[in-house]
Specification:
38% helix, single chain, alpha+beta, five-stranded mixed barrel, 27 helices, globular, DNA-binding, 887 residues
Length: 887
Amino acid sequence: MVLTTVESCVVQGSYMGRDTDSGPETVIELWCRAREGHSILLLITGVRPWLEISVPGRLKTPPNLDDLLDQARAIKGVTKIHEPIDKWSEMGVKPHWRVEVSQPWAVSTGPKVREKLEREWSVTSADIPFINRLFMDNDIGPHISTEAEVLWANQSVPDSLFAKLPGSNKGDAARLQAADKIRDIGGSGLYPVDLIATCDFTKIVRCEPFATPFVLMSFDLETSIAEETVLCAAAVIQQGDGERVIREFQGNEKEILTGLSKLIREYDPDIITGYNIDNFDLPRLNTRMKSLANKKDFSSGADLFGWGRVPIIESEAKRLVPSRDSNRRTWRIHGRCVLDAWWQARTVLRPKRETLKYVCRLLWPENEDLQKMDVDASQMDREWAERPDVVMEYCVQDTILPLEILREISAVKRKEALASVAAVPLEVAISGTTSQWIDSLVIRLADSENIAVPRTNRGGRGEQIVGGYVHEVEAGVSRWIAVLDFKSMYPSIMISNNICYTTRIDKNNRPDEVPESGFHESPLGAKFLPVETRRGIIPRLLGDLMNLRSEHKSALKTAQESGDKVAEQFHDEMQYAVKILMNSFYGVFASKFYRFTHEDLGSSITAWARSNIKSIINQLDEEGHHVVYSDTDSVFVEAPVKEDAPLKEPAEGEDRTSWDEASEELIKFGDELADRFTKEGAELEFETALSSFFSHGAKKRYVGQVIWPEPKLLIRGYEVRRTDSFTLLTDAMTELFEMILDGESDTAVNMCISLIKKVKEGNVAPRDLVISKSCKGKVSAGGQIDFTSAYVNPDRMVQVRAAKQRIEAGLNFTPGMKVGWLVTDFSKSPMKVAAWLEDETGVEQTEYDPDFYVKRLATALGRITEAFGWSGDDLIKGNRQANLFSF
DNA sequence: GGAAGACCCTAT
DNA sequence: TAAGATAGGGTCTTCC
C-alpha cells in the first residue's frame, strides 16, 4: 500500500452508491488538481447520507412516539435511526433524530423517504446535496490536504511518488488490475486522470489556499450554415502558466468530434472554455453527436463527445457525455467546469456589444491583428470551400482569444478565490448561485451549533418588502459636496442588531425564549434577541467575513509596499471575493425562498437603514447643511465653503490659493461629519469630495467632479453608463458633463447644437450610432428560436426584429445575447431597423435615419441642458425663444 | 398627443 | 422548477 499526502483543489464532486454484503455504501468522488500540477481523483469512503426528523409543532414527545419511530424505521430506504439530539428549531428546542438512508437519491426518488416521513414528522436537513455534507462536516473548502492510498498513477505524478509505486501500478498490463481495485472501493474504474487514490473522509482536512495550476481547454467550431454540420474545429490547452498546445481538426465530422474528445482525455483539462460555448458550440456538438452516433453502441457516443472525467465503460454512458441542466441552461461535464469567456466578459466588462471582436477591441485597442476581418461568418460554407486555410486560422485565433480574455480579467483566479471564501468546489463558484454559497457557510455553522436546518421555502409569494430610501434631487449644479456613506450598511445593521432567523423573537412559536436584557426592536416593531442571550449565526458569519476582509486588505497593503505582485493579486482577489459574498447576504435573507428567512428579517434591515440615513439627513438639515442627494446608504452634503471659491480648478501657472483653501475646507468638513456620525456598528465613511455636482433632477442620475481622493469624473445612471445607448451619445454626454462641471454651460450648449447639426447632415460614422439590447428567446426542439415565450408581442420589440435579421443572414443568435442595430426609418411604427452585422460580415453599413438620431440626441442632451434653459427642441433649432429668464 | 404597459438597464 | 433584494429612469409600441 502506497500512501501519499497531497494538497489539491477540488474542481468538482460527485458520488456513486452500491449495495454490498454489509449494506449500502456510498463513495464520494472528488476531481482535483494537485498543487504540483497533476490531476487527481479521490474516492472518499465513510460518509453516510441522512436527514433529520422531529415531532411537528411545540410538543416534544407525543404519547405514541415509539410507534412513530418504529414506523419510520420500517420505511424502505431507511437504514438506521440515531439517538436524538436537542436542536433549536422554529418551534423551539426539541429532540431531532438523525435518519440514515440507503443512498442520497433515496431521499427524494425511489423509496421517497422524505415524502413518507413528512406525513408524521417535521423533516430537516433533507435537501442538502450529498457532496456538501463532506465539505460541511469536515469544515473544508476547495483547497484540501489528504493522506490517501494510491490506487493507480501515471508518470505525470511527481517522480518521488511514481518511484514508490510497485510494479503492478505501472504499465498498461496492470490497468485492468487497478480498475478492479478501484471498483472494489466503490469507484467506477480507471478514470482519465493522473492519480487515483482513496481515503476515509476523516483524512481530508482544509489547507491554506494556494494558486492552483488548473488546466484549461478552449475550443471553437466552424459550422456550416446550410447543413448545421461541423466543418472544422480547433482547441488549445493551457497547463497552468506553461506553454499552450494548439490542435486543429478537420476531415469528416466523426474525425473532428473524435479528435476533440481524445484531446480532452489526453490532456485532462479542469476547465473548458471558449466564446459562447454554453449556447452554441456545446449544444451543436451534442446534436451532431446524437445524429452521428450508433444508438445501440454507447461507445460511439463516448468516442464523439465523451468529455466526462469518467472511464469509458457502458455503465458510465450517461456521465461520459455532457448534458444541459434543463432549468438553468448551463452545461454539466462530470468532473470538469464550463467557464464561458462570453459570459465572463459580459459580467465583468459590460460591453456595449458582445461579439468576440468587439470585446477584444475593448480589451486590446492597440492590437491591430485582432481587428482585421478575415472571414465572413455569414458565408461560412463558401469561405470553407474557397479558402479553408484562412478559416482554420480564424478558428484557431478564436480558441486563443477566450483564454486571453479570461486571463485579462483574472476570471479563474477570481472564481478560485470565491470558492475558497465560500468553501465550495470550484465548480460551485463558477456555476452555482449566491444561495448555494451562503448555504455552504450557514449550514455548517448551524450544524455545529445544533440548529435544525429547514428546507428551502417553496412557492414563496406575498408582499414585497420596502427597500432603501432615495432622496429627491434638485436640477442644477451644486458646489463643494462631501459624499459620505455607511460602510457595508446592510451587513453592519445585521450584526449590530443581531438580526437572524435564530434570534427573531416569536411569542407564538417560542414563548419561552425571553431576552436576558433588553432587545433590538426595528422601526417596524420586529424584535431580536440581544447577543447576550444568543448570538445569531448570520451576524456571526458576517462578523467573521468582515474581519477576514480586513485581514486580506492589510495583507494586500503590505504586499504592495514590499512589491510582492503575486501576494498582492492573491489578497486583492480574496478581499474582493469576501466583499461579493458579504453583499449577497442581505439579498438572500430578504428573499422569499431561502431556508433561514422570515419576512421580518429583510424588512427590518431596510427599515433600520432608512431610519439611520433619514436621521442623519434631518440632523444635517437642522444644522443648515444642505443634503443635495442620498441613496440608501449615502449622503451628499454641501460644505460651508467661502462663496468666492473659484468655479473651476486653476490651470497650471495660475494662482491656486483660493481653490486649495476651498478643497481643504471641504475635506475637513467631510472628515468631521464622518467622525461625528459614526456610531458603534454603523461606520459613516467620508468617501469622496466633489468640487461640483450636477443632476437634471432625477433620482439615481448624477455627475460629480471628484477632487479627492483621486481626481476623476463620476457619472451615475446617465446614458453614458448604459450598454443600450450609442457611442455618439455617450461621448457627447461625457463631454457635456465635463463642460458643465467646469461652469462652461454656453460652450456645452454650442457643442450639442453643432453635433446635432452634423447628425442631421448625415456626417457621422454609422458605427457610432449602433444601439444594442439583450434579446431573450427559447431554443426549441429543431434549433429554431422561439420568441413568443419570452415576449408578449415579440415583433413589436426592436431587438427581436434585429435578432431575426441576424438569423436570416446566417449569423448565430443565442438567447440572452445583445443584438445591435441601426434605425433606418423612424417615420414608421414600429420603426424600421437594420441589424448591425458589419463586425461579423465585413460588409459596410451606411444607412441610418438622421431624424431618429437627432431626436434621441436632443431628448437625452436636452434633458441636461434644460437646466440651463435650453430644451431639446432648442438644441435642434439651434436657438431658443426669448423667455422670462433670458436677457 | 398622451396614457398605459412591456421591457431594458442601472443604483445601491 | 429554481431562485439574492427593491428603487428608479427611460424607450418604444399600442391604444384611445
